[in-house]
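Handout, section B. The chain below has 181 residues.
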Amino acid sequence: MTISNRESFFIIFLLTICSSFNVFADSRKFLYRGSFTKETYLIDQTTPTEGFVTFGGDRRALTKFCGTESKYFCFDSFGIAFYVPKNLNESSTSWTVDNLTFSVSGKNVSFELLGQTYTDLYIISGPINLFPIPYNYIEMKFIYSQAYGLLGFSYFDDTRVFWSEKAYGFGKKICDVDRHC
């Protein structure tokens, strides 16, 4: 599958803003830093099904996480929702969970950054969950890999981009030494 110039720009843009990784932090907390802004998103999974998302520096929202028995890696909070099948593969094109639809808009994307090679990346488009009433969702883009998890995301026409502070992100599947997941 080919990716558009806009999606290529999105990936290159994310790569240029990433300057360092902290791989020793708590494995259930994932910090995403904004580009050209001080804004951050902290995804904090305190139990298998509950936690918080802190955003904008001072707003904290209760967050629902998919449990270990779920078919999905997910978090659903005020302002942001992400669902991805645990068995995401080449034939995956779209899925709907809790009336939210996500779709694959790019597959098999790879790049190298600071000596780290990222392969088998997916670009996933999906809505953010703003209100519990019917609402026209704003499409977000997520960069996800089973081996590395959610590495980054953008919203509002790609002008606000967030990149994982770690070399991996939320939803990272357990892999062996050779990256077989």
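Note. The helical segments are 5-17. Compare this with the example in section A.
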